[in-house]
Amino acid sequence: MPLSPPHQSPHRRRRLTLVAASVACATAAAAVALGAGTASAGTLSGVLYRDPDTAVARWVAANPNDSRTPLISSRIASQPASRWLSNFNLSTVQSEVSTYVGAATGAGQVPVLTLYGIPNRDCGGASAGGAPDLNQYQTWVTNIARGLGGRTTLIMLEPDSLALLTCLSAGEITARSQALATATRTLKAAGAKVYLDAGHSAWNSAADTAGRLANAGVADADGFYTNVSNFQSTANETAFGRSVLSALSGRGINGKRQVIDTSRNGGAAGDWCGDDNTDRRIGRYPTLDTGDANIDAFLWVKPPGEADGCRYAAGSFQPDLAASLATGAPLPPTTGPTTPPTTPPTTPPTTPPTTPPTTPQPGGACGATYVTSSSWQGGFQGQVTVKAGGGAISAWSVSWTLASGQSINQVWGGVLSVNGSTATVRNAAWNGSLAPGASAEFGFIASGAAATPTLTCTA
């Protein structure tokens, strides 16, 4: 798979007190008008695609002995995030998209793409760039659609393109809206699920946002996304989304859904730029199982650890930012229980963690240790640490026998295969090479009663 160029992520500015106040009033009315979603999810289902060739995965692979690596690996590199298409290149974008979406489809997972190539993007700010003009932009979008090949893909179309219009004239705003509407129809015809830019809950009002969405063709889209590269709480974004849906309904546009970026909204408020804030944390882990009929997905649109363009170059991966975001975060949530918890477990596991003896580590071999990190009625979450012996290894696998009634539902940080009652997890593309004494982690969710397995590690 070809390497994806680093994206230039949009930066979100201005926390408008008056706008936030108007949003709060509007959301109260919207809650009455729409009611709370009661479905287990929105219109989507399945497992999101975790690309093994991301900036964070490459950093983890190249830095096995860094003290930050285990934290970044288990909390960030293990999770699916959106692939950004931000370098305007008409000749290569179709093949890039086809390769990426093909890999996701082959894995039986749902890919997410963020298109970021609209002319005059970011109003010439830290993430300036994009297509030279709207005609070439439409050609770019058409090539992307060809790369999709009818395979279901979630597309976040042009962050900032509707929330940030201050640098455009009235005629330019109309032209941009028409271009987004055309792009939406083109991508929808290729099988994509398309969502348009709705800013966030502390920016433009819900009524204003709905008007911009309507003008940009949201009637033909699947809905809108909020909070990309921002830090507003999931509760605030959910309420804001209901206000926007209510305002769209007032315009005769119904049946739309919201997507919320939760990649950096788990910490305190502060300045918009994440490069200089150490109080930010990752929010909810990415999932299509939202528990809300109005919300199709919680996504990591902005990959955690990639800079905003203040202290570091926009889109560059910075391990200190990633480690800061991941500090204190629980292990990824589960999809093992029939009704999974809506937030990662914070209470002590009903089965106390156990640490069996490490398997032998002679020469270039490896050892593995296991802990039950959480358990619930009918399922549990396990975490395995793989450690290289006295020599470097280029790949590893860990096998164990499943106890009666156990089955594995999800694995991160490795690739699972099951043969009868024997489960084997092999390294992912980014964590197989270990220096002498270095370690890697993988985790899994299983149904059945928790039990301490006897692990066999092979290098």
What does this structure look like?
The protein has helices at 17-34, 55-62, 69-77, 93-106, 134-148, 170-189, 206-215, 234-250, 319-326, and strands at 83-85, 112-115, 154-157, 193-197, 223-226, 257-261, 295-299, 366-376, 379-388, 397-401, 407-412, 414-419, 422-427, 439-447, 456-458. α5 (134-148) links the parallel β2 and β3. The strands form 3 sheets. Strands 1-2-3-4-5-6-7 form a 7-stranded parallel beta sheet, covered by helices on one side. A 4-stranded antiparallel beta sheet has the order 8-9-14-11, covered by helices on one side. Strands 12-13-10-15 form a 4-stranded antiparallel beta sheet, with no helix packed on it. The chain has 459 residues and is α/β, with parallel strands linked by helices. α1 (17-34) crosses α8 (234-250), α3 (69-77) crosses α9 and α5 runs parallel beside α6 (170-189). It is built from 9 helices and 15 strands.
